[in-house]
Amino acid sequence: MPRVSVVVPIFNTRQYLPQCVDSLLGQTLGDIEIVLVDDGSPDGAGEVADAYASCHGNIRVVHQPNEGLGPARNVGIRRCMGDYVAFVDSDDWVEPTMYERLYGKAVESGSDIVVSGHCDVTNGRKTFVKPHPLAGRTLEDRQDILGVRRELYGHAPGDAAVESFPMSVCMSLYRRSLIESCGLAFRNALSEDTLFNLDAYGSARRISFVGSTDYCYRKDDQSSITKTFSREKLGLYSDFVDALAALARMEPDSEDCMLRVRRTAVDYARLYVGLVATSDLTPREQRSEVLGLVDSAMFRGYCMGFPIDALPVQQRIFQRSLAGRHTRTALLLLRMRLAMKKGGR
Which pLDDT score is estimated for 227? Predict the structure, then answer.
């Protein structure tokens, strides 16, 4: 039985897949199973996966019609045999010691989940190294775990932090028996990692956070649903915030969790305007899309009435512009922010 099973969903990443799979084959930890799930990829990536499987006995390939990232991961989980399960996106890769470090910590601490940091890599160069903010800690007290889990709902209203609390499942190792006994599964939704981790953290008895940053997150401007504008995006954001709110309302500290959900809606509104501002739409169409956001159920239900004065200054000004339907101002502010962010790199 393998120690670790790594699930890799594949869709339109043929050019990146060899680096991803080679990095898993090169792990210093032995007894690793690699489960490649071809999610109906139209670019021939499934053939690349089959070629690897024909040469390596620890690689298994599943082919299926396209269903999305969450369902593809669920199919992979059902094929796993390892003590622990990990997830890697097929356009990313991992350093050779990634799973030796995570698995070693899992065995040493008896943790159900072990979480690391990651690196952002652009055109082969590490641009940001991001250790996990809780690196070095192991949590087993229930209140401590729930306190960290609360961060998954989003920033507190007055939190000035720019970075979200780490939510990706790709930097973590999960005990397979935890996944199976608690029926953990990914939803077919935007930000499925957050929803999965809310369930996983809520069920775990012990969680460890390590200081390694062996996961390499590719940021080469490759195609991504999170980076491009589409008119369906607002509905996806709204559905995710609704799902988050449904969970928050069941929490013992539901008031605090709901404030965090509303802050997440505020953040998603800003993200959406950023996508509009960098789209190919005409200025008039851009203003129309922003008005559609302001009139949306998400904005009216979660953003309106949020304690704006608790936000950082720049976000406060932007949010007031949106609430006042000053679309030109909101778009200008986002363009300035994006230009400053790009220049800072």
Answer: 64
Task: Please state whether beta strands 59-64 and 32-39 pair in parallel, antiparallel, or not at all (unpaired).
Answer: parallel
For the chain, list the domains and their CATH numbers: 4-218 (3.90.550.10), 233-344 (no CATH)
Q: What is the pLDDT of residues 249-278, one digit of tens each?
A: 999 999 999 999 999 999 999 999 999 999
Reduce the DSSP state of residue 174 to 3 states and report it.
strand
Burial class (CB in 10 A: 0-12, 13-18, 19+), 327: buried
Report the Cα–Cα distance between both ends of the chain, in Å, rounded.
45
Cα distance between residue 25 and residue 55, in whole Å: 11
Question: DSSP letter string over 68-97?
Answer: -HHHHHHHHHHH--SSEEEE--TT-EE-TT
Distance in angstroms (rounded) separating the CA atoms of residues 8 and 48: 13
pLDDT of residue 175: 98
CA dihedral 264, 191, 162, 259 (to 10 degrees): 20
